[in-house]
Design goal:
By secondary structure, the protein is of the alpha+beta class. The chain has a domain of about 140 residues: Roll (PH-domain like), CATH 2.30.29. About 35% of the residues lie in helices and about 30% in strands. It contains 2 helices and 9 strands; from the N terminus they run αβββββββββα. The chain starts with a helix and ends with a helix. InterPro entries: PH-like_dom_sf, Ran_bind_dom, RanBP1-like, RanBP1_RanBD.
Length: about 220
């Protein structure tokens, strides 16, 4: 075979046919899944970037819980306000509790905490606050926690304090209102029960009287 013929064969082998666009139907279709944050029924009334710490009772030192936006969320129906903070990027919850004073009431997966939720100045800092909660659910279970939150400056810290205390007052009023309404409802049930008992006694007396008349 001549060199020219060899070259033609090599040139043919080097030629690559143009690719044809081919579509393959996927074996499994992935459906779009709506991701819920459990914030759909709430309005954000306060939001500010901060860093959250918790006090470790074992080591007796502050440990960082996360950095992100701390929010006050108001429920559209109940009006109750909770504190929520998610870590940057992962969006994992690092604080989740209601801000009130007064009683301890379980509400689904949340707990309205006691009156110990009061902001106190963090010693040595004008941009940080400390508070404790009887029940925080950020880790999935109810835990007593001592928190410290630090902001970029004292102005932001004071804005948070003002919003925090306003939320606490709102929740306390709602809680007291619920307590009064529950007490009134309980009294109504008692009165209805008394009336029903009286009616039963009266009906029984009437039946006995009718029997005596028949015996005569």
């Amino acid at each position: 075979m001549s060199e020219i013929e060899n070259k033609k064969i090599e040139d043919q082998e080097d030629q690559v046919p143009e690719s044809v666009d081919v579509y393959f139907e996927p074996v499994i279709k992935l459906e779009d899944i709506e991701t819920k944050t459990n914030e759909e029924d709430e309005d954000s009334i306060f939001k500010m970037r901060a860093k959250l710490f918790r006090f470790d009772t074992t080591s007796q030192e502050w440990k960082e819980r996360g950095t992100g936006d701390v929010k006050l969320l108001k429920h559209k129906e109940t009006g109750k306000i909770r504190v929520l903070m998610r870590r940057d990027k992962t969006l994992k919850v690092c604080a989740n509790h209601y801000d009130t004073g007064g009683y301890l009431i379980i509400l689904g997966f949340h707990i309205i905490v006691t009156q110990d939720m009061k902001l106190s100045p963090n010693v040595g800092s004008d941009r940080s606050w400390v508070w404790s909660v009887s029940a925080d659910f950020s880790e999935g279970t109810s835990e007593h926690q001592l928190f410290a939150i630090r902001f970029a400056n004292s102005e932001n810290a004071n804005l948070f304090k003002e919003a925090f205390e306003d939320a606490r007052e709102v929740n306390l009023k709602l809680l007291n209102k619920d307590t009064v309404e529950n007490a009134e409802a309980s009294e109504e049930v008692k009165e209805e029960t008394k009336e029903e008992a009286k009616e039963e006694v009266a009906a029984k007396d009437q039946t006995e009287a009718e029997k005596k008349e028949e015996e005569k």
